[in-house]
C-alpha cells in the first residue's frame, strides 16, 4: 500500500512543513495555556484526571512525529536507491533509468505520475509502462533522442505534461537525468521568461550535465539574435 504524502496546512503553516510542525504552528497558545492550568489544578487535588489532557497531547505529538519520520524515510529511499535521483521541488523528482525494483519505491514515496524521456531502444525488454501503471501510477512517454530532441515542440509537450500533473508528486526520468535538466532549462527560458543563466541553473538542479553546452548555445544564439 502506498504511503500518502502529508499535506501541509494551507492556512497557517509554510509550504513543506512536517506534520509535527503543522501541529505546533496551528496550536492555539491560549487554549494550550488554559488546558495546562486545568491540568495543574486537577493534579493538585490529587485527581488522575489532571494528567489526561497532557497524556493525550503527548500521544498526538508522538503520532505526528512518527508520521513525519515515515514520510522522510520513503522520500529519502527514492534519493538513496533510484539511479541519479534528485528532488528539485516538493512534489518533483528527476532520475535516471528506472529498474523493476524502483517502481515500488516510487509508489511508496507517493509518486503519482511518471514521465519517461527515454527512447524505445534504450531499455529493450523492460516494460516500464506496465509496471508503473500496475503500481497505481500514470505513465507518459516523451522520447527525447539526445540533443536532436531538444526542440520547441518537445519543450511545449513537456510543459503540458508537468502542468497536467499539477501539484501531484511526479517523477521525470531519462538515462541520467541529463535530458530532464535540459528540457527544464529550455522550458524555463522559452516558456517562463528566465534568463539563460537562470534557466541553466534551474536545469542543473534537475540533472543537466552533458547537454549543458548545447542548451547554453541554443539560449545564447537566441539572445544574440534578439
So how many helices? 9
Fraction in helix: 40-55%
What is the overall shape?
globular
**Average residue pLDDT:** 78
Q: How would you name the oligomeric state of the polypeptide chains in this document?
A: single chain
Largest sheet, order of strands side by side? 1-2-5-3-4
Residue share in β-strands: 5-15%
Question: In a few lines, what is going on in this structure?
Answer:
With 226 residues, the chain is α/β, with parallel strands linked by helices. It has nine helices and five strands; from the N terminus they run αααββαβαβαβααα.
Please, could you describe this protein's structure?
Strand 3, helix 5 (128-134) and strand 4 (138-141) form a beta-alpha-beta unit. The protein has helices spanning 19-26, 29-44, 52-81, 100-108, 128-134, 152-165, 178-190, 196-206, 212-225; strands at residues 86-89, 92-95, 113-116, 138-141, 170-173. It has a five-stranded mixed sheet with strand order 1-2-5-3-4, with helices on both faces. The N and C termini lie far apart (52 Å). It has 226 residues and is an alpha/beta fold. The longest helix is centred in the first third of the chain and has 30 residues, at 52-81. Helix 7 runs antiparallel to helix 8 (196-206) and helix 8 runs antiparallel to helix 9. Residues 1-52 and 63-73 have low confidence and may be disordered. The chain has nine helices and five strands.
List the helices and strands and how they pair.
Elements: H1 19-26, H2 29-44, H3 52-81, E1 86-89, E2 92-95, H4 100-108, E3 113-116, H5 128-134, E4 138-141, H6 152-165, E5 170-173, H7 178-190, H8 196-206, H9 212-225
Parallel strand pairs: 2-5, 3-4, 3-5
Antiparallel strand pairs: 1-2
